């Protein structure tokens, strides 16, 4: 009996050691990631990121959590992109073209009237060799690992007067973000570009400090710009995307199973993000008209022609890399 009890005791010790080692190593360790974004809690962007946070918390059984900092709490988009690059922020959203501040040829992704549709933009980024090379530069040279790309709406122009043609833009004080492509759009169509922070726009429109602004329809709704602007012109000048970016250094710190959870969560959030923006664009015209907003559809050929010199300047500034990328975009139509 003593011998049997001794064997049982040894067996229990072996099983305990096995249970504490190897396959469970690191499984109880918890990780928290910070996700900073510019839009507020009423936005589609926030809703998609919240879906991501909920997904990873559930699938990881609490081992991976995402703390969300919306409404520019951590700075504007440029500052947060820089923070991810430096490793002080884990996740953010960024347009491909906005990354052109660091990888110059990428700025073509936000130039007005370059892409025919969001599908055209995605093909250009993911299905051409030049687009794939760009993704490598983002990750290997700048610490930006792109886990998903989503549609963020096409930018339209709201104003305090009807825009029936490009001539109606002349002299208009147009709020734009402090981004070269948006500044170029305003100048090229004859407006006076007025950069300011997104959080200041509502009051500026309300007090007529500016005459108009340009944003996707969903942003016009979530920020309630329709309360202080009576007109929206369907200029469709820039097709916005949003990249879900995780710092490569933050990604590398996660165990493989949590990397998988994060990647799956981001992919699902990106799909929801795109579906929300596309769904909005189908319904928001009626919504704005019900709110008393007049929708105009100016002939865009004059707008597109006015932006051709900007495309030419891009090629001139970026040389062979710019020329090849523009040709790749044309080939992806």
TrEMBL record:
> Quick check: keyword Manganese in the entry?
no
Superkingdom? Bacteria
A GO cellular component annotation here is: outer membrane-bounded periplasmic space
Q: Which UniProt keywords apply?
A: Signal, Transport
The question of whether Glycosyltransferase is a record keyword is answered with no
The record's similarity note reads:
Belongs to the bacterial solute-binding protein 7 family.
What NCBIfam families does this protein map onto?
Answer: dctP (TIGR00787), TRAP_S1 (NF037995)
| Protein name from the UniProt record | Sialic acid-binding periplasmic protein SiaP
What gene does this protein come from?
siaP
């Amino acid at each position: 009996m003593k011998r049997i009890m001794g064997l049982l005791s040894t067996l229990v010790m072996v099983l305990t050691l096995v249970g504490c080692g190897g396959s469970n190593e690191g499984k109880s360790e918890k990780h928290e990631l910070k996700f900073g974004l510019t839009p507020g809690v009423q936005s589609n962007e926030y809703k998609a990121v919240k879906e991501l946070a909920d997904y990873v918390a559930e699938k990881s059984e609490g081992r991976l959590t995402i703390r969300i900092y919306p409404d520019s709490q951590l700075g504007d988009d440029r500052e947060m992109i820089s923070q991810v690059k430096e490793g002080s922020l884990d996740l953010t959203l960024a347009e491909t073209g906005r990354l052109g501040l660091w990888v110059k040829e990428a700025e073509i992704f936000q130039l007005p009237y370059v892409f025919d549709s969001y599908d055209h933009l995605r093909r250009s980024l993911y299905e051409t060799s030049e687009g794939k090379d760009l993704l490598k530069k983002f990750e290997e040279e700048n610490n930006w690992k792109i886990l998903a790309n989503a549609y963020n709406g096409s930018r339209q122009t709201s104003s305090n007067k009807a825009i029936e043609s490009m001539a109606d833009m002349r002299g208009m004080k147009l709020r734009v973000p402090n981004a070269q492509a948006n500044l170029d759009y305003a100048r090229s169509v004859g407006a006076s570009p007025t950069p300011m922070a997104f959080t200041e726009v509502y009051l500026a429109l309300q007090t007529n400090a500016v005459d108009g602004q340009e944003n996707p329809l969903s942003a016009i709704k979530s920020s309630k710009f329709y309360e202080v602007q009576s007109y929206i012109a369907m200029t469709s000048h820039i097709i916005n995307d949003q990249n879900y970016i995780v710092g490569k250094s933050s990604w590398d710190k996660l165990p493989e199973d949590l990397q998988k959870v994060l990647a799956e969560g981001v992919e699902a959030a990106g799909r929801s993000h795109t579906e929300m923006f596309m769904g909005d664009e189908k319904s928001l015209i009626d919504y704005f008209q019900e709110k008393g907003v007049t929708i105009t559809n100016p002939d865009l050929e004059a707008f597109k022609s006015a932006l051709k010199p900007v495309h030419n300047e891009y090629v001139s500034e970026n040389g062979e890399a710019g020329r090849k990328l523009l040709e790749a975009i044309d080939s992806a139509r």
